[in-house]
Design goal:
mainly beta
Amino acid sequence: MKTTGVLSLLALLVAVCAAQAPKPCVSPPLLHGGFTTMSDDGLMASTGTMSYDAFGQRVKMSVSNLTGNGTSPIQRVLLFGKKVMYEINWRTFSCRMKRLNATFQPMRVPEDAQLLGQVVMGSSSSFGMGVLVNNWFGTLPGNALYTFVFTEVGCIPVAYSIFTPEEGWHTISTFNWVLGTVDPGDYILPFFCRKAKLEESDAPETMLTALKSLVREAKGMK
């Protein structure tokens, strides 16, 4: 009986520990926040804001350059439901419409992601001094790798790092997330986009390529 009791206790402890282990999660469907990007050379290339709508399957990214010579916002509006992306440049009042990959990828930790570790950003010495986050890693098609950081509570994205053999590492750090839609007009296109015509391309755009093009464009603005 004693042996049976010990084995039952051990089984219960194992079950409790397994239940406490972080699991892949999905972020809230409506978010608005800020982000910075780091290019493969390790220098900060741009900063901006992002609106995310999982219900409507759409994302808007706005970036301004950090050259110290003023700001010139450029934007990407990704409408996955219509399979198109708009590139908007407010400095030149120009708008381009490109084909978008039809697959909408919600902000989430992939189901096959591996847990790298759980840490406290800041301090755990007192309430309010730190945030508990989970670090995940995994592989992507084309020999690419990723590491994602999400908060334990709320599944809020903190950082994305993606490595590709062709371009090295790209890191996106996020902050100031607000739940919900801050501006209902975020996805309304400016008037000069009405004349934009769909550009054919052998490689449809994705959220990652859209962000990379934002970084390159902002980095080249002087």
